[in-house]
Amino acid sequence: MTGDPRDFVAHEAALLDERRFDDWLALFADNGHYWVPLLGAAQADPFSHNSLAYEDRLLLQLRVDRLKNPRAHSQHPASHSQHVLQPSRIESETGDEVRLRTPFLYVEARGESQILLSGTARHHLAQTPSGWRIREKRLDLLNAGRALPAIQLFI
Amino acid sequence: MTSYRHHPDRIAALVQDDRVHRDLYLSEEIFALEQERLFANTWVFLGHASQVPEAGDFVTQEVAGRPLLMVRQPDGAVHVMYNRCAHKGTQLVTDESGNVGRFFRCPYHAWTYKLDGAPLGLPLKNGYEGTQLKACESGQGLSVVKHVKVYRDFVFVRLSDAGPSFEDYFGAVLGAIDNMVDRSPEGKLTVGGGVLRNIVRCNWKMYLENINDTVHPMSTHESATKAAEALWEGHAPTDPKPMAMEQILPFGSGYEFFDKMGGRVFTNGHSVLGVNFSIHSNYAQLPEYEAAMQAAHGAERAADILQRSPQNSVLYPSLSVKGSPQAIRVIRPLAADRTLIEAWSFRAAGAPALLFERAMSYNRLVFSPMSVVAHDDVHLFESIQQGLRAGGNEWVSLHRNFDAAELAQATITTNGTNELLMRNQFRAWAKAMASEVAA
Ligand code: FES
Ligand SMILES: [Fe+2]
């Protein structure tokens, strides 16, 4: 898919909510990363401070494959997610690359319980012959460092 | 509803030689008694001195339901006080950490205190002339925690005046802290990279038992390890592994591996799992680091430190240590059915940055709220918390490898899958809980 990168961000969230995880993973560039810093927006890099998640394609593939295993015990019953996005705003555009910010609410429901997270998603996308690809998806949570229950799917 | 407070016999009956009663995990009364008797009368990990490097630096933390304050003094000492103004009880600071400068000033009526808690001043002083204030507790400044031990920068407190000395309480298991600190050629660790915090809706004892449970990884973590194995398939055993693979793949080791790793129990509930080897034993070698360790400690001690990488060492009741990777978990009970688990990483002075990366990577993969490995553990703990409410069988089995001779011994080395490591925790629990001494 080419075209407006703001549509790409909405499409990406919809794939997650539809549990189309393989299609979602295919949106990442080979060297793409998924990052949820422990300091939220205040964190400069993933190396000097820890993160709730900092994953390359290998680890994302592991997550997606684990979810397919019937012995992923924590998925009985399965979790479902809903992203509620504010309109994406383009932060910068240079050549074939674009950076966007998208404030969001994220709900993850499983059985009787439901968790609500909020923050800003920051996408760094690159244009390729087959459309936009994710260089980095960074999720700056409000209160990332507070005690959290298990977050099982992808914010 | 059974009442336990004035019935030590009923509490003792919850822990039998080879099984424990479900009320241990379900009863709010038992939880309240644990706060008073177990967490107040034993030595509980509060924090690390590197969190408060400068005079006036503080960290707030609750232990046994009491708000505490750890403060660095002008002379370099670390003091612990109750976070309660002597006037009406306002918490002096409500940030998690910070620096107060040269004194504390209560936000309510501006009473001030020195960094060691001694009273400094108060407004409208004249109004107190001729009153009892000076003689009352309120005139004495902040209440201090008298029993504080800073062991190689790990800060422990015992809130009650009664109870064993720090050395008597922990004994030989302190070697786990020594091993981790000595992995720094300079003998110095600092907390780094923040703390990952999880809320788990289960009793704290289940989490602590699982730290000593080697029979579950095969079945519990099957989805994560199978996915990792499939991704790594086709690589030669000698191929350099990405750090994440190096850390996740060993979770899939077989029953025999975990049985042979061995375990050791000590008096007062402490234990070391993996006395022979562990899932952390085969991290890539670092020749330059090993040379630095030999220069610092001598060849023999350096080899001893580096070859020992137990799976977990439990400093009962609240601290679990992994010398390699340099990480600790702190268990902070919130209610009978709610527990806060913290995962901390350390930087070791004089050691390569890779060690710190390993600690952060391990914590992120295994102990983050977004972990790929922990979801299945957490789900099962929460499942147990619900399952125990079922009628019928009221007992939890700890029979595996029970041997009546173990009752008479203080320190025992045994196979890695022996539930003795858990029975030992509960024997210490029963001992602490039977006492009616309150802090
Ligand atoms: S409560 Fe602290 S000064 Fe009044
Ligand atoms: Fe586990």
Count the helices of chain B. How many?
15
Rounded to the nearest angstrom, the distance between the terminal CA atoms of chain B is 26 Å
Q: Which whole number gives the mean pLDDT of chain A?
A: 97
Helix-residue proportion of chain A: 10-25%
Bound molecule types: FE2/S2 (inorganic) cluster, fe (ii) ion
What is the domain total for the residues of chain B? 2
**Binned strand content of chain A:** 35-45%
Largest interface: A-B, 32 and 41 residues
Mean pLDDT of chain B: 96
* Strand count of chain B: 20
The residue ranges of chain B in which pLDDT falls below 50 over 5 or more consecutive positions are none
Helix- and strand-based class of chain B?
A: alpha+beta
Which regions of chain A contain 5 or more consecutive residues with pLDDT less than 50?
none
N- to C-terminal separation of chain A? 22 Å
- The dominant shape of chain B is globular
List the helices and strands and how they pair.
The complex is a heterodimer of chains A (155) and B (439).
Chain A lengths: L4 H13 L3 H5 L2 E10 L13 E5 L1 H12 L11 E6 L3 E6 L2 E14 L2 E16 L2 E11 L14
Parallel strand pairs in A: 1-7
Antiparallel strand pairs in A: 1-2, 3-5, 4-5, 5-6, 6-7
Chain B lengths: L7 H5 L6 E3 L1 H4 L1 H14 L2 E5 L8 E7 L2 E7 L5 E5 L14 E3 L3 E3 L6 E3 L4 E3 L25 E5 L2 E5 L7 H5 L4 H8 L6 E12 L3 H8 L5 H4 L1 H11 L10 H6 L6 H6 L2 E3 L5 E3 L13 H11 L1 H9 L4 E4 L3 E4 L4 E9 L2 E11 L4 H15 L6 H14 L7 E3 L14 E3 L5 H15 L5
Q: Descriptors for this entry?
A:
A: 155 residues; alpha+beta; globular; B: 439 residues; Naphthalene 1,2-dioxygenase Alpha Subunit, Chain A, domain 1; 2 domains; 8-stranded antiparallel beta sheet; 4-stranded antiparallel beta sheet; 15 helices; binds FE2/S2 (inorganic) cluster; binds fe (ii) ion; dioxygenase activity (chain A); NTF2-like_dom_sf (chain A); dioxygenase (chain A); oxidoreductase (chain A)
